[in-house]
Design brief:
This protein is α/β, with parallel strands linked by helices. 40% of the residues lie in helices and 18% in strands. It has 8 helices and 9 strands. Helix 6 links the parallel strand 7 and strand 8. Helix 1 packs across helix 7, helix 4 packs parallel to helix 5 and helix 7 crosses helix 8. The chain is globular and about 50 Å long.
Length: 226
């Protein structure tokens, strides 16, 4: 897809920063970022729409009347950071779904979302249930293609933020556990945020239709194509 127009949520996070850096290398791509706070420097092919709360930034983007081809979300928080499961759902499900709806109305044909391994709308785990409900909601919007990336524990340094407790633990034990997770269990391996970003970048603009989920070794395979 040439001259692709991308609308992105979560560009300042762990995966998001790495993904923005990769998309910045595509001369024919225009990247519109919805941000709570201004992030400098911006790549030459990017524009920032800044507002807190984020719906303010979305309204600014809509007023620009530029349209888009691909919706990308690397937005993600945790229940502990949000304060409650309800607050978590408002961010990770409701907000992302609202922006996806507006992107679809603006012409987007593809959605690329960073989700979670084992995301399922009927999961008994609240985190995985919310992620699954988001996947189902986005898939129902009528995109020609939906790509849901489902990594295990994300590894990497969060710029300007302390590492999340699970990530601190994962940094220590992943080298020991990952080699033991083989076969069907390979999907649960901890994975570097850079790998997830590379996989997402490789998917942006792919033409084939369908609802596709990518986990475990598939993410590294995609990253090798970026």
């Amino acid at each position: 897809m040439s001259g692709v127009r991308v609308l992105m949520l979560g560009g300042s996070g762990l995966v998001g920063r790495a993904l923005v850096a990769r998309l910045a290398k595509r001369d024919a791509l225009r990247l519109d970022l919805l941000l709570r706070r201004a992030a400098l420097p911006l790549p030459a092919n990017a524009r920032a729409f800044v507002g807190d709360p984020l719906p303010v930034a979305l309204e600014q983007w809509q007023a620009s009347a530029q349209g888009c081809d691909v919706f990308v979300s690397a937005l993600g928080t945790t229940r502990s950071m949000a304060g409650s499961i309800e607050a978590f759902a408002r961010i990770d499900r409701d907000l992302v779904l609202r922006v996806a709806q507006e992107a679809r109305k603006a012409g987007a044909r593809q959605a690329v979302l960073v989700s979670s391994v084992d995301a399922a709308a009927r999961s008994r785990n609240d985190y995985l249930r919310v992620k699954g409900e988001l996947e189902e909601g986005v898939a129902a919007l009528g995109f020609e293609r939906c790509d849901f990336l489902q990594p295990g524990l994300l590894l990497g340094a969060r710029e300007g933020q302390p590492a999340r407790p699970a990530e601190r633990f994962g940094q220590r034990v992943a080298p020991l556990l990952n080699p033991l997770l083989i076969g069907p269990l390979a999907r649960y391996r901890a994975v570097e945020a850079e790998v997830v970003a590379a996989a997402a970048a490789a998917l942006v603009g792919r033409p084939a239709a369908g609802v596709l989920r990518h986990a475990g070794p598939a993410l590294k395979a995609l990253a090798g194509e970026a």
